[in-house]
């Protein structure tokens, strides 16, 4: 049996794509996934270009794989994802031992690329953007656990000045409405009870309904998924404030299966910086969205994304960011120092902020958010909630689950509990203590 080792860099979209690579290769080419690099017949690097020096990290990994290929000449090495889209043939030029280079939209063509590589003896590169074609060629979703990702759209048309996504994944294209419902229904029949809907700009979804002119918006999709038997919890990421409509706010009020948690990237609190980023809203407009959703969900935790040190960011701009964070009291968020991504407009801006200033601002920001995280966690002590059980905790004695607001919770078990029977299920937990980034809990109901 041939084995494939897939290393995933970056975001949940890439995790989803890696799962689909494994499905395609197993169903069409006979490869089964392995976590053991030494036994692999194929190694795929599914890359992400969001972080600084992403390309350098990829080529560093490829350097190590060159030694492995010298020992195993028939080893197939492939590079996929956003770095592949950016670099294309340059990857093969720098690392001629790479056999396959493919983009996020062409992962479904892996079997054909492998066959052509073996037939021609030449490295294969396909980083085209065939819109939504890949979803028409993927095998039916398969899942053993209780949670699954479902990609509902690809690409982004916002063109924020710092972001490479429109260049590496293309413009926004939504999957047909029924296709998404069929995939979710199939997962539910396999025992999946938690779904995370994915997209670079997920709430911009507009899917075709059958062959009609009608389009389903994101709120309508959430309403229909909520009616699918077996689905107990729905998440989505990543959303954009520009498409956070009143219908979507109302969905949070009326759909019990939609988690009591929202990840809504703001990026900054200064209107000057938001304009330079081409985000398309002001700080006040963002706060207005939060105010409206908290009118229907008063205690909903809000997490976000932040970039500090964007070119031109002054001390006053940073203070405005900190004020926004204090006003909204964000939950666990992703905070980054600005790094110029090749090919983006922001890469041409003068990066005039000293590194030590960026680091200090990042530390101040994360410290403030950490205070909010702990306060929110402490407020959960004494409450009960349905928790998705993901597996055993590191100590091997407790179960580990995830709350609605994406907290890890370690759960004490009665001595007679069949822990394995609970994994992949939703069960009720009483929260007993709060740590910096996790909770402790006790099992209330084994199964319901």
Written overview of the protein:
- Its cofactor is [4Fe-4S] cluster.
- It contains 15 helices and 22 strands.
- With 448 residues, it is an alpha/beta fold.
- It folds into three domains: 2-126, Methylthiotransferase, N-terminal domain (Rossmann fold, 3-Layer(aba) Sandwich), CATH 3.40.50; 135-379, Alpha-Beta Horseshoe (pyruvate-formate lyase- activating enzyme); 381-443, OB fold (Dihydrolipoamide Acetyltransferase, E2P) (Beta Barrel), CATH 2.40.50.
- Helix 9 runs parallel beside helix 10 (246-254) and helix 13 runs parallel beside helix 14 (355-379).
- The two termini are 40 Å apart.
Calculate the mean pLDDT score and round it: 92
Unreliable stretches (pLDDT < 50, length at least 5) are none
> What's the overall geometry?
globular
The number of strands is 22
Backbone structural class: alpha/beta
Classify the beta-strand content into a percent band.
Answer: 15-25%
- Main sheet makeup: 6 strands, parallel
| Rg over alpha carbons | 23 Å
Number of domains: 3
CATH architecture annotation name of the largest domain: Alpha-Beta Horseshoe
Biggest sheet strand line-up: 2-1-3-4-5-6
- For the record, what is the CATH homologous superfamily label of the largest domain? tm_1862 like domain
How helix-rich are the residues, as a percent range? Answer: 25-40%
């Amino acid at each position: 049996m041939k084995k494939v080792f897939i290393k995933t860099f970056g975001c949940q979209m890439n995790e989803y794509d890696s799962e689909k690579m494994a499905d395609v290769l197993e169903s069409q080419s006979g490869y089964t996934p392995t976590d053991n690099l030494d036994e692999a017949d194929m190694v795929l690097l599914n890359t992400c270009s969001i972080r600084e020096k992403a390309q350098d990290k990829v080529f560093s990994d490829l350097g190590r794989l060159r030694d492995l290929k010298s020992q195993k000449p028939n080893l197939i090495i492939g590079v996929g994802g956003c770095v592949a889209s950016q670099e294309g043939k340059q990857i093969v030029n720098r690392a001629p031992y790479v056999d396959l280079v493919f983009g996020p939209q062409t992962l479904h063509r892996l079997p054909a690329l492998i066959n052509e590589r073996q037939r021609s003896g030449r490295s294969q590169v396909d980083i085209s953007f065939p819109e939504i074609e890949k979803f028409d060629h993927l095998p039916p979703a398969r899942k053993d656990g209780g949670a699954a990702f479902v990609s509902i759209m690809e690409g982004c048309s916002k063109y924020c000045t710092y972001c490479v996504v429109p260049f590496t994944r293309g413009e926004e294209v939504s999957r047909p409405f029924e296709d998404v419902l069929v995939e979710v229904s199939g997962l539910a029949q396999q025992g999946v009870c938690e779904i995370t809907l994915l997209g670079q700009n997920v709430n911009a979804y507009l899917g075709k309904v059958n062959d009609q002119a009608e389009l389903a918006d994101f709120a309508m999709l959430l309403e229909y998924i909520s009616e699918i038997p077996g689905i107990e919890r729905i998440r989505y990421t990543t959303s954009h404030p520009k498409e956070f409509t009143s219908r979507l706010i109302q969905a949070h009020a009326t759909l019990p299966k939609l988690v009591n948690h929202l990840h809504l990237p703001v990026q900054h609190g200064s209107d000057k910086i938001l304009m330079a980023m081409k985000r398309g809203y002001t700080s006040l407009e963002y706060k207005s969205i939060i105010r409206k959703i908290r009118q229907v969900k008063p205690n909903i935790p809000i997490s976000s994304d932040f970039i500090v040190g964007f070119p031109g960011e002054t001390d006053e701009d940073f203070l405005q960011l900190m004020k926004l964070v204090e006003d909204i009291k964000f939950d666990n968020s992703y905070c980054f120092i600005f790094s110029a991504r090749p090919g983006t407009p922001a890469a041409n801006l003068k990066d005039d902020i000293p590194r030590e200033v960026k680091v200090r601002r990042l530390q101040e920001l994360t410290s403030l958010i950490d205070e909010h995280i702990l306060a929110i966690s402490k407020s959960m002590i004494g409450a009960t909630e349905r928790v998705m059980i993901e597996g055993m905790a590191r100590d091997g004695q407790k179960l580990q689950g995830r709350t609605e607001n994406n907290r890890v919770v370690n759960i004490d078990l009665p001595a007679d509990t069949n822990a394995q029977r609970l994994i992949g299920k939703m069960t009720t937990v009483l929260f007993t203590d709060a740590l910096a980034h996790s909770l402790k809990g006790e099992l209330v109901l084994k199964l319901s």
